[in-house]
Amino acid sequence: MAFKLSPALVKNSLASHSWLGLLTGALMYWVCLSGTLAVLYQDFERWETPQVPEFTEVSPEDLETAYQTFMEGQEATEHAYILMPRPGMPRTVLMSDHDARVLNADGTLGDTAAHPWTHLLTDLHLYLHLPSSWGMIVVSTLGVMLCALILSGFLAHPNLFRDAFHFRRKGNGRLEQTDLHNRLSVWGSPFHLMIAVTGAFFGLASIMSWVAGQAFYDGDRDAVIEEIYGGHPDLEPTGEPLAIASVLRQAIDRSPDGAVPIYLTVEHPESEEEHLIVGTQYPDRLIYAEQFVFKGDGEYLHTVGFSDGEPGRQAIFSVYRIHFGAFGGVGVKLLYIALGLALTVVSVTGINIWLAKRRHRDYLNNLWTGIVWGTPLAFVISAITQVVAGIPSVLIFWGVIIASTIYAQWRDQDAPTRRVLQYLTVGTLLVLVAGHALRFGDDAFTGAAPWINAGLIATAVAVLLWARRPSAA
């Protein structure tokens, strides 16, 4: 199949595609790789803290008692949360704006809930470790640029579909990289476009809400947010204690069969505006949850309408699960990982092709090699220092990447540098698995931990085999 496009359009599209790829470069690679790993963020949280008790059921009365205990002595907080056992995360956590505690199986409060390495991973994907307000906009802008890259890529290669199964494995390295880039781009384009659009939404939603507020709500941005996500109810103080157990049971009764309450939010605790929101996940729906709103004394007010409201509201509250593959179980996660890795490879091979076209080597080649193969190494070493040794790891993560680029510049040879970084990644992956088992003992063989460790070993084997290829890229 060939598109009938003018040679001038193809030439201009190719130039645009190249410059957009260069502008995104390393940032796109970091976002794609971290996003692929973040599909397993719940599993990584469980792996990082395997000693936390896991159970799938907890009584509403135990939650009510635990909440009262948790809030004793708490600083003033705008929100308090109870995260209940849910598919993929059989744990219960109580949170405020200042503290988080796990719940033991007997209903007592346990240790502080913290998984800093998993947050390092997800914060890189969401914010690139920048301040959250700015980082989200940067990452979302990358989503917009990815949409442009996909469009310009198709326009720049009118024979893309005709050549979809043509792959030159031997000979010219640049042609091999080009075929790999183009084939993965074609096969994964629906997924890549979905990821780009939903990723762009997260950070640009605040900008779009401001624009909509200016255009339709007399400059009132809060009115736009309330129109989409629901506003605060008008309440009068009742003086009654929070009826947490009652509202949980009511939410279950008002939900369809199979629906599971996954969180309870206390809005403005111990104030005149205090009220309760129960988030209930519906079976076979992409919405993250329907929200049931109650007064503090347990009187039911309304649902927000994410399950049966306006189509736009339903779509917006489905973006999270679509973007992160948080639906459909293990099979969907594995599919998202495979397609996410394909997008990561596309981002890398795009820069590789541009570097090969220059017909000379300089510090840019070394910088790119250090970034591409230093980043996986940085993930592993930061996991060792944080999960095994308990040492804060964000600076270590970036330090490893910087050290890798310095080493690449000093070595000034692509293939030997790659192999050294790849072999280091293999070795540190095995150290991570062994260190995890030594630190957590029997807990390292419960819950999600053995599956993650098995995946780390399989990754080490895959990287070793890749490193031993004569033309490993």
Short key terms for the protein model shown above:
473 residues, alpha+beta, 3 domains, eight-stranded antiparallel β-sheet, 60% helix
Describe the overall structure.
The chain has 473 residues and is of the alpha+beta class. It has three domains: 1-49 and 120-230 and 324-359, no CATH class; 54-114 and 234-303, no CATH class; 361-473, no CATH class. It contains 16 helices and eight strands. The protein has helices at residues 7-38, 41-48, 60-71, 116-127, 132-156, 173-187, 189-216, 221-229, 244-254, 311-316, 319-324, 330-357, 363-388, 394-411, 414-440, 449-467, and strands at 79-83, 93-96, 100-103, 109-112, 260-267, 275-281, 290-295, 300-303. It has an eight-stranded antiparallel β-sheet with strand order 4-3-2-1-5-6-7-8, with helices on one face. Strand 6 and strand 7 (290-295) form a beta hairpin. Helix 6 packs antiparallel against helix 12 (330-357) and helix 7 packs across helix 8. It is globular. The chain starts with 6 loop residues before the first helix and ends in a 6-residue tail after the last helix. The model has no long low-confidence stretch (mean pLDDT 86).
Entry summary:
With 473 residues, the chain is α+β, with helices and mostly antiparallel strands. It folds into 3 domains: 1-49 and 120-230 and 324-359, no CATH class; 54-114 and 234-303, no CATH class; 361-473, no CATH class.
Shape descriptor reads: globular
The biggest sheet, with number of strands, parallel, antiparallel or mixed sense and barrel status, is: 8 strands, antiparallel
Order of helices and strands: HHHEEEEHHHHHHEEEEHHHHHHH
- Indicate the mean pLDDT: 86
Strand content: 5-15%
User: What is the chains' assembly state?
Assistant: single chain
Task: Work out the helicity level.
Answer: 55-70%
Number of strands: 8
Number of helices: 16
- Cα end-to-end separation: 30 Å
Low-pLDDT stretches are none
Task: Compute the CA-based radius of gyration.
Answer: 25 Å
Structural class: alpha+beta
Strand order of the largest sheet: 4-3-2-1-5-6-7-8
User: How many distinct domains?
Assistant: 3
